[in-house]
Design a protein that fits this description.
The chain has 11 helices and 10 strands. By secondary structure, it is α/β, with parallel strands linked by helices. Helix 4 links the parallel strand 5 and strand 6.
Length: 317
């Protein structure tokens, strides 16, 4: 079932989840064990992130270094197939521009289509580890709106190989990312929303927001999107803070603010266990407020850890 049909259906508010694939070489049960605790909430879909290959320089026996391309995690197709085999849930793989040519992306999408997967999230992806700015792969896309256009073209039966005769259209529902406090590389929120509208105009069916800790940011973002002519559903994305590391890392990595009130409570904490409790209580408050104001769905960034998410859902829904 397509995510857009789920969003437009008549149902009680629900939670969806985003997980990170296990590292290469890990037991597949590690992935299953991160999903199993969440299935009690009957999520209609689960997102699975994608990660580009990394470049490493490894020393050889003669003392010189050679460049090596390393895949740190299994690919989207394998992960999607594994989840479908184990659980009765729609899988929404992320498809990213970074690290792939247009032809390689098309092949990934064809494999997903053959698996019967109807949902993807189209993202540009991050810069290569060690590089400050994103640079497109030669023959690939520089921006996610071009990726959305490619997927939408495939839905119309338009493939990269123009010599194909009567190609069968795919049937993907396309999600994209939105940033209530703007993307870290965007000059301002207004410009960022203009970029977001380009993705919607290219064929995106819905938007999932980056995490935020101040609900007013989400409400203001939604109002500005509507004023800009963006009419597709905008799903709020949340992540509870659970460690002191999050306080240092999240604002820098995602260009987000931590509210004064939240930081005031965290400053009272003596250890990570206390921060964990504050994170659960704050995220529960966010959830209740979002649901009170009409949210049909809340998307949780789990990072493979479910205990705090489970408590938040039980306290909110």
């Amino acid at each position: 079932m397509k995510v857009i049909d789920i969003l437009n259906g008549n149902h009680k508010p629900f939670a969806s989840f985003e997980l990170v694939p296990p590292l290469k070489g890990s037991d597949i049960n590690k992935l299953y064990n991160s999903i199993e605790p969440l299935m009690e909430f009957n999520p209609p879909f689960i997102n699975m992130t994608a990660h580009r290959d990394e470049i490493e320089y490894r020393q050889t026996p003669d003392g010189t270094y050679r460049q090596v391309t390393v895949s740190k995690r299994p690919g989207s197709v394998a992960i999607a197939a594994a989840i479908m085999k184990k659980f009765n849930v729609e899988v929404v793989p992320h498809v990213i521009c970074g690290g792939s040519t247009k032809e390689e992306i098309e092949n990934i999408l064809l494999d997903l289509n053959f698996l019967g997967i109807q949902n993807v999230v189209a993202l540009r992806g991050d810069a290569i580890v060690g590089e400050k700015y994103f640079s497109p792969t030669p023959g690939g896309h520089a921006h996610s709106n071009a990726l959305v256009e490619q997927i939408n073209n495939m839905n119309k039966g338009i493939y990269l190989d123009e010599t194909l005769k009567n190609p069968v259209p795919t049937n993907f529902c396309i999600g994209v990312a939105g940033y209530p406090e703007k993307h870290v590389e965007a000059p301002n929120l207004t410009t960022d929303i203009e970029y977001l509208k380009q993705k919607v105009d290219a064929g995106a069916d819905y938007i999932v927001t980056q995490m935020f800790f101040d609900n007013s940011k989400y409400y203001e973002f939604t109002e500005k999107c509507r004023a800009a002519g963006i009419t597709v559903p905008i799903i709020p994305g949340l992540k509870p803070i659970s460690t002191h590391k999050h306080i240092e890392m999240l604002p820098q990595a995602f260009s987000i603010d931590l509210p004064v009130e939240l930081m005031s409570e965290i400053k009272k904490c003596k250890d990570n266990a206390a921060i964990y409790r504050v994170g659960v209580e704050w995220c529960t408050m966010q959830c209740k407020d979002l649901l009170k104001n009409g949210a049909k769905i809340i998307h949780f960034y789990t990072m493979g850890k479910a205990d705090n998410i489970k408590e938040i859902i039980r306290n909110s829904f």
